[in-house]
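re the bet — no i am not wrong, look at it urself. input seq straight from the record:
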Amino acid sequence: MGRFASVSDLTTRALRGGAALATGGVLEGAARFGRNIVLARLLAPEHFGLMAIVLAASQLFEAFTDVGVRHCVVQNRRGETPEFLNAAWWFSAVRGLLLFAVGFFAAPALAWFYDDPRLTDLLRVALVSVVLAGLVSPRLYVLQKQMRMAGYVAIMQGSAVTGIGITLALAVWMPNVWALVFGFVAEAAIRTGLSLGVYPIRLRLSLDGESARDLWAFARGMAGLAILTFAMEKAEIFVIGKVCTSEVLGAYALAIALADVPLTVFSRIVQPLILPAFSGLQSDAARLRSAVLRSTGLVLRFGLPLAACALILGRPILAVVYRPPYDEMALPFGLACAYRVLTMVGVIIASLYLALGRPGLHRAFTLFRGVLILIVIYPAVVWFGPTGAVLGLLVTQVIALGYQAARMRQLIGLALTRYLACLGPAIGPTATVALAAAAIHWLWAPGDVVQVAFGMAVCGLAWAYTAWRLHGGSVRSRETAAVEPVVVHS
């Protein structure tokens, strides 16, 4: 009975947490979507290109010393104790200050590499956000660990929406790249201030030995993981910025930002629940297998139809949401949508590795794919421009996912054929959306707004069909569960 009560409690917390994350994630996603629509009409593509380089460089500095404090607090059994939280805060704070110091003196080198002196001051100001991020209260991660997501959402999404408002106000006042940089730093400052004000921790100069050892051991397991992840996610920004113009990079960055909307919603709503949910099931391989298959199937069944629509209707979508010349990035945008779906699938497997306390496995996968990307990304951009960049990312992700999936048999006994079967239910809705979008785009060819509205309607119908099928399967499962005890004990 204790086991079933535990499962019921986990499910209840997951549902409540999911509802809170859904509310906050949708609000933040809508705000960022609206912000980009407005900014595309206030700022030139060059400004987005400069900001893309600044953000990528800032994330590169962070990646070099990412010690995985958030993941460790969630995964560690002592992560909620005051001693552990004190050690976690000091780890993050010292790291943030060191990163700022290194980045401050390295900024001129970045400006020299891109032959743009403006990047020196832009990067130095943006790196203030790294210091602020290191000061965030680790009690936020305890909320994630316990799946008490209301407070987590209020701070994370609340600071994001406020930062978006500040960015828009600044863009009206000074329509240049500095509006983006100051808005970025303001969002980090609000998040840190709220976290420490609402969820303060008792700081001590002395560190608990066991907590420090646990953090250090987890950090060693994560060593190099963030820089490899960065190579997978942002390498094309540096290459496009070097090979192409700032205007091309800016148009690409804004198109990719639109493709990132589903991934952003996923990372805000679903991803924070996956690691604690998997961690709670780590001693039950059968239920862990079921959770991996169910979450992967949901991502594919809802994500692939949307990617098919974006791949075919990319030009009218970008023309309606933004304006020319952003619609020139239609093909990279469509490929990026497909790539983001596969990225979400990869996040599920990565969360499995971390939940089992095996970050080394995730690092091995990331190293494998990072090497692939470093091999293909530069020639791909030189030969095919932004389209080559996304195509290279997509191909390497497919190869790396096959490598990941094969390893799950050793971890939780999940056969590759059973895992690949998750793709089956997504094929029908995806093919239907693709055929309908192709018909209206190439046969009928009405105005852009009509094409986008039609694509949204077809995707909505595909999702409704999937939801109906899932509901029917859930009902059948409950009916089977209700009859099963009678059959077993007869």
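see?? Residues 272-480 form one domain. told u. also The two ends are 21 Å apart (CA to CA). so pay up
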